[in-house]
C-alpha cells in the first residue's frame, strides 16, 4: 500500500463528499460587514448588511484513511465533527486521505505530530477539531453554529465514560452506570431545552457530540450487545434527528472501520 492515496496537489478524491452535484446553485459564503447608509424608513445609519459572495477554492482537509477500505474515510469522530461543520456551513472541501500507519513525508511536513484532522485556512494548516471549528465559525459566520458558553459543556463527559465502559471487563465496576448517569443527564437537559442542545437550532456542540454518540451506538452494540435504554427517549430522539440530517448522512456514508477502530480498546 502506498504511503498516501492522494498527493498534496490532488483534487477531490470522492464524488460523494463533494457538494457540487447536490445543487445547481453556486456555493456561497456569507460575510457580514458594516456600511454607512442614508436614513431610509427610519433605519439606523450604521446598518449591518449581509453580502453574499461565492466561496473560494474548496478547503483542503487532511483526514484518516480507512485501514480496511482504501479511498474511504476512517473512523474518527473528531474528523467527522469538522466535516459536519463544513457541511452545515455549505462550504466545499477536498479530502486528502492519510494512511496514519505509514505517514507520508508531505503530511509530516505540515503536521509534525502526525495528527488529523487538519485543515488549510488562509494558507496555514490548522490542527485540532476544537481550533478548526472555531476558526471556521470566525471566518464563515453564516449560518451561525455558535454555542452559548453556558451550554458548551452539555454532554461533554459522555465520550470518556463510553470508552471506560467499552474497555471494561468487569460488569460490576460501575462503568456502565457512569455512562447511564451521563446519558440520563443529557436526556433531562433535552427534555427541558431540546430538540437540540441550543434549543431549536443546531450548533457546534451538537456537531461535536453527534459523531461520538454514533460511535457509542455502533461500538457498544457490537462489542457488548448494549444499547441506549428506551427510557432515555429524548436522547434517542435527539440521535435520530441528527443522524437523519443531510450533513450527517453524507459524512456517515464515508466513515469506515468504526468497529475495527475500537477493537484495540476492547482487546487491549
TrEMBL record:
Belongs to the GST superfamily. DHAR family. It catalyses: L-dehydroascorbate + 2 glutathione = glutathione disulfide + L-ascorbate; RX + glutathione = an S-substituted glutathione + a halide anion + H(+). This is Dehydroascorbate reductase 1. Residues 66-144 form the GST N-terminal domain. Pfam families: GST_C_2 (PF13410), GST_N_2 (PF13409). PROSITE patterns: GST_NTER (PS50404). PANTHER family: GLUTATHIONE S-TRANSFERASE DHAR2-RELATED (PTHR44420), GLUTATHIONE S-TRANSFERASE DHAR3, CHLOROPLASTIC (PTHR44420:SF1). GO terms for biological process: acquisition of seed longevity; ascorbate glutathione cycle. Keywords: Detoxification, Glutathionylation, Oxidoreductase, Transferase. GO terms for molecular function: glutathione dehydrogenase (ascorbate) activity; glutathione transferase activity. It comes from Perilla frutescens var. hirtella (Perilla citriodora).
Amino acid at each position: 500500500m502506498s504511503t498516501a492515496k492522494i498527493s498534496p496537489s490532488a483534487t477531490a478524491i470522492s464524488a460523494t463528499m463533494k457538494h457540487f452535484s447536490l445543487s445547481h446553485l453556486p456555493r456561497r459564503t456569507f460575510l457580514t460587514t458594516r456600511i454607512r447608509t442614508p436614513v431610509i424608513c427610519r433605519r439606523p445609519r450604521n446598518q449591518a448588511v449581509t453580502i453574499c459572495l461565492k466561496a473560494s477554492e474548496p478547503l483542503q482537509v487532511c483526514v484518516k484513511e480507512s485501514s480496511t477500505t482504501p479511498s474511504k474515510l476512517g473512523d474518527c469522530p473528531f474528523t467527522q465533527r469538522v466535516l459536519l461543520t463544513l457541511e452545515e456551513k455549505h462550504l466545499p472541501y477536498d479530502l486528502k486521505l492519510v494512511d496514519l500507519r505509514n505517514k507520508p513525508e508531505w503530511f509530516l511536513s505540515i503536521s509534525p505530530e502526525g495528527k488529523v484532522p487538519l485543515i488549510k485556512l488562509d494558507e496555514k494548516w490548522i490542527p485540532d477539531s476544537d481550533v478548526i471549528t472555531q476558526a471556521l465559525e470566525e471566518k464563515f459566520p453564516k449560518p451561525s453554529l455558535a454555542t452559548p458558553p453556558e451550554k458548551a459543556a452539555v454532554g461533554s463527559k459522555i465520550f470518556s465514560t463510553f470508552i471506560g465502559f467499552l474497555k471494561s471487563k468487569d460488569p460490576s465496576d460501575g462503568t456502565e452506570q457512569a455512562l447511564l448517569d451521563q446519558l440520563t443527564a443529557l436526556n433531562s437537559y433535552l427534555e427541558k431545552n431540546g430538540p437540540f442542545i441550543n434549543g431549536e437550532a443546531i450548533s457546534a456542540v451538537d456537531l461535536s457530540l453527534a459523531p461520538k454518540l454514533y460511535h457509542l451506538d455502533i461500538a457498544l452494540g457490537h462489542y457488548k450487545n448494549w444499547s441506549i435504554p428506551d427510557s432515555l427517549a429524548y436522547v434517542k430522539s435527539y440521535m435520530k434527528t441528527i443522524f437523519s440530517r443531510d450533513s450527517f448522512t453524507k459524512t456517515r456514508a464515508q466513515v469506515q472501520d468504526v468497529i475495527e477502530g475500537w477493537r484495540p480498546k476492547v482487546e487491549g
